[in-house]
Design brief:
By secondary structure, this protein is α+β, with helices and mostly antiparallel strands. 21% of the residues lie in helices and 39% in strands.
């Protein structure tokens, strides 16, 4: 019984560190879909509190996997790329209407404006509140400043806008920066688990010696 305490402690630590990330935009009903080859599509946003981007994603029409490789990026409004990811055809993890891949967490500066955008030549994209229909739940940790797009034929800073809402396009997930920075790295998890295991072995030997 005592020997199992180490592994119980490990499980509690792991469950405490595994928190759910939340999407910037959670589509309820998509807007009109179209294949916008040559365009990077997304939206402008800022964070109201200390948040970090932990995953980048792109709209998946039909929720049946991407037919083409997609690229997603996040820029500040000076056009500096601060985060990026690639999702190969058939790849990514589906969450709602989007396919996501995890990235190394990127801390966002409170009040700074950013632009997220995605480029995919062959998969249909959608929108929310950009004059093409669509309904969505928005993340209460963020402010939204309208749709963004570019027409360079490759992933690029989306420096143009046609108004409000969002072209989807790109999306992302966030977690509180304090929670992300407090989570141990994989190597640290390995050391912790090894330590718990050694503690369990020591307890078993002590129990056997006292028997």
């Amino acid at each position: 019984m005592k020997a199992s305490l180490g592994w119980l402690a490990a499980a509690l630590v792991l469950s405490a560190g595994a928190a759910e990330a939340s999407s910037a935009i959670s589509l309820i009903t998509p807007g009109t879909e179209s294949v916008d080859a040559g365009h990077t599509l997304g939206f402008e946003f800022s964070t109201l509190n200390a948040q970090s981007i932990t995953a980048l994603g792109i709209y998946d029409s039909g929720k049946d996997g991407l037919a083409d490789t997609a690229q997603i990026g996040v820029w500040d409004t000076f056009g500096h790329l601060v985060a990026s990811a690639t999702i190969k055809a058939g790849g990514g993890t589906l969450d709602g209407f989007f396919r996501y891949v995890a990235i190394t967490p990127v801390a966002l500066d409170v009040g700074t404006h950013y632009v997220v955008g995605a480029y995919d030549e062959h998969d249909a994209q959608s929108s929310w509140a950009a004059g093409q229909g669509g309904t969505a739940a928005l993340n209460l940790n963020l402010n939204y400043f309208g749709n963004r797009f570019s027409s360079t034929g490759a992933l690029s800073y989306a420096d143009s806008s046609s108004g409000g809402g969002a072209f989807l396009g790109g999306n992302f997930k966030i977690e509180p920066t304090s929670r992300v920075s407090a989570a141990p790295e994989p190597a640290t998890w390995a050391l912790m688990l090894a330590g718990f295991g050694l503690a369990g072995v020591a307890l078993r030997r002590r129990t056997a010696a006292l028997a």
